[in-house]
Amino acid sequence: MRVKLTVQKFNPELDSKPYDRDYFVEAGREMTVLTALLKIKAEIDGTLTFRASCRAAICGSCLMQINGSQKLACKVSIREEMEHHGKITIGPMANMPVIKDMVVRMDPFWEKIRAVTPYVLSSGEKAVPTAALKDLHETLQNADGCIMCGACLSACASYGVSHGFLGPAALAKAYRFQADPRDEQHVARLEGLQKPDGIWDCVRCNFCVQVCPKDVKPMEQIIRLRRLSIGAGFDNSVEARHITEFVKVVGHEGRLNETLLPIRMTWGHLKKMLRIIPLGIKMFFHGKTPFPFKKVPGGDEVRAIFKSRGKAE
Fold it and tell me: Which of 142, 149, 206, 271 shows the greatest Cβ crowding within 10 Å of its Cβ?
């Protein structure tokens, strides 16, 4: 079948801004987007620029936006994209400086990876049981499956707002070493992740999970880091207290008290307490401040669940 591919072109040395160009190729049932791009480059437009290497979804170099989503071009079927979207639009990764066409500068991605010290920190004196190493992959929750394609950072809502945010791949990598029994700096690593632009700045948009081609599930690794942080005593920040106080409020009242939770979260942080006053006023006028003496159906059962859970632990 004859297929139209709309590709974003941009050469900073010649163009003032990106523009779209349409290409037409004869596509078989098994043709991928990468194969189509290679065909275009060989037969139609030799200036078309993109990265590619293994063609087997291993190296991660052909990551680009296809129909608005971050995907490996070597994995994407032309036929399936046409069936799902009725078109094929191709552009460079989002949130990255464009060098030319689909080629972007990956420096921001690598800076994030380096920031989490991506290697085991060990003196070699710590004895690690053989059984722990044997089951290491399961312990790491597939955090070691990352191929460094950058899809998650490109799709990340938090990074789109603040480029200081460490990003999903780097934080998943941080969990990989946090869960490694050979590493001897677990507490120090967790302490470093409490800073602004660390684990608490993830807004859990889930885009990183959706676009990851290797099922690393970066957001889930970030959640695991948060749990480990609270378990290690890093629980005094407003963000950490959102979790701990949420559990206490629901366990005590059998419901979520939207008035009490923000107060308990920000207690001791005067500036942040003052900042939520306008929010509290809006909540009141929208009926989001529950009447303290009103009994909630099922509240006793919820409290019983939390009580039994506390005894079990």
Answer: 149
Taking CA 292 as the corner, what is the angle to CA 290 and CA 293, rounded to the nearest 5 degrees?
125
pTM for the model stands at 0.89
Q: Which residues are paired to 64 by β-bridges?
A: 71
Give 162's DSSP letter: -
* 3-state DSSP percent of the chain in helix, strand and coil, to 5: 45, 10, 45
How many Å separate Cα 234 from the centre of its chain?
Answer: 22
Segments of the chain assigned to CATH 1.10.1060.10: 107-231
CATH 3.10.20.30 for domain 2-104, yes or no, is yes
In the chain, residues under CATH classification 3.10.20.30 are: 2-104
The residue length of the chain stands at 313
By three-state DSSP, how is residue 7 classified?
A: strand
**Half-sphere exposure of residue 210, counting CA atoms within 13 Å on the CB side?**
11
**SS3 at position 81:** helix
Whether the Cβ atoms of residue 49 and residue 14 lie closer than 8 Å to each other: no
Measured on CA atoms in the order 180, 183, 188, 193, is the torsion positive or negative? negative
CATH class of the structural domain 107-231: mainly alpha
Question: In this structure, which amino acid lies at residue 311?
Answer: K
Q: What is the pLDDT along the chain (313 residues), one digit of tens a residue?
A: 899 999 999 999 999 999 999 999 999 989 999 999 999 999 999 999 999 999 999 999 999 999 999 999 999 999 999 999 999 999 999 999 999 999 999 999 999 999 999 999 998 887 888 887 888 888 899 999 999 999 999 999 999 999 999 999 999 999 999 999 999 999 999 999 999 999 999 999 999 999 999 999 999 999 999 999 999 999 999 999 999 999 999 998 888 888 888 888 998 888 888 888 888 888 888 887 777 667 778 888 998 998 888 755 5
DSSP state of 92: P
